[in-house]
Amino acid sequence: VQLQASGGGLVQAGGSLRLSCAASGSIFGINHMGWYRQVLGNQRELVARISSGDVTYYPDSVKDQFIISRDRAKSSLFLQMNSLKPEDTGVYFCNVETFLGGDYWGQGTLVTVSS
Q1: Distance between CA 47 and CA 49 in Å, rounded?
Q2: Structure letter (DSSP) for residue 106
Q3: Half-sphere exposure (Cβ direction) of 107: Cα atoms closer than 13 Å
Q4: Cβ neighbourhood burial of 31 (10 Å; 0-12, 13-18, 19+)
Q5: How many Cβ atoms are within 10 Å of 11's Cβ, its own excluded?
Q6: What distance in Å separates the CA atoms of residue 24 and residue 1, rounded to the nearest whole number?
Q7: pLDDT tens digits, residue range 11-44?
Q8: What is the separation of C-alpha 60 from the centre of its chain, rounded to a whole number of angstroms?
Q9: CB proximity list for 113: less than 8 A, separation 6 or greater
Q10: Which residues of the chain have a pLDDT value below 50?
Q11: In whole angstroms, how far apart are CA 94 and each of 13, 60, 111, 114, 115?
């Protein structure tokens, strides 16, 4: 199974983007699905996660700014990003973890926020 992230692009500060992540096949036993951001030279950081019970988590840096959602039937994941700031710039990766230890990553989609 492969994950395909899309929706990145160039946006002005204050704008919005919606990222999508689609799975090429069915993923069984999903535990968590999440979005991570990586800035050149830094480690990937978690920006949003949703559990199998639809409990969401956001770090303080993006709380009230990002909204994660998913389509259970299609194993798809979304990230609505609002009020974007230049510091939100980075490559965004989607991730799926399963109860049996599966760990899937998308190829990343670049988000650039201009000031």
Answers
A1: 7
A2: B
A3: 8
A4: middle
A5: 17
A6: 6
A7: 999 999 999 999 988 888 989 999 999 998 899 9
A8: 16
A9: 11, 12, 13, 15, 84, 85, 86, 87, 88, 89
A10: none
A11: 23, 19, 13, 23, 25
pLDDT (0 to 100) of residue 70? 94
pLDDT of res. 74: 76
Residue in 1, 4, 35 with CA at minimum distance from that of residue 107: 4
- The first and second tokens of residue 10, run together, are 């160039």
Token code pair at residue 57: 């988590």
Give the helix, strand, coil percentages of the chain, each rounded to 5: 5, 55, 40
In sequence order, the 6+-apart residues with CB closer than 8 A to the CB of 23 are 1, 2, 3, 4, 74, 75, 76, 96, 104
Smallest CA-to-CA distance from 59 within 90, 91, 37 is with: 37
Q: For residue 88, which phi and psi values (nearest 5 degrees)?
A: -85, -5
